[in-house]
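Provenance and format

Records in this collection were gathered into a single text stream. Each protein contributes a sequence line and a token line. The two records reproduced below are adjacent in the stream.
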Amino acid sequence: MARRLWPLPAIAALLVVAVLVVVAMRTCRSRPQPIVSPAASFSAAGVPVESPDLAVEVVEVRGDLHQGYMDWVCLVRCQDPGGCRADVRATVFYRSGGAGERMTLSGPIEVPVGARARLSSVQRPPHRVDSIEKVAVRVVRRFAAGDPVPTPEY
């Protein structure tokens, strides 16, 4: 009597499929990504400033982390003897995970010499800030004392 051998090819086929699935899963795995710290609130003082158009110093650059966004603030102190009256754009150059990044904050400032002004912006999604390299301040336009404060250009 001859025995039927039909289960052997079915078992062999299942083993081949199982081996192919295991091999495919191993080759499809991506390399492990480096662990990246999540964004966090930060504060930096004594940041170098590049401001050829307006005499200001950076008092502080701060980021306050909220749910889904980072609220950036740059406090500058006017050093111009006549006061600071201008619509300005400040670009914050910073490092995040080893890469160079930038954030732009803008708005009008109208303060006397020695007074502080606040520039701010929101970043979505928030980025981690490892260090602040510098702040570049540029005047978009100037206005005279008593003129209406212009609407910020973004």
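Adjacent record:
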Amino acid sequence: MNNKLVNGIITGTIISAVGMYASSKMSPRQKRKMMKRSKKMFTNAMDNMNMF
């Protein structure tokens, strides 16, 4: 595996773990708002890494 891919996987894992913890403390309305925002961020990150 290439080093950039490994760093991306590790970073993604950490971000998702923190996001899951934070979402467990939120109201349903806040969760929906966060999901929209995180989906947009994830799409932008994938475009920048040129993985897919």
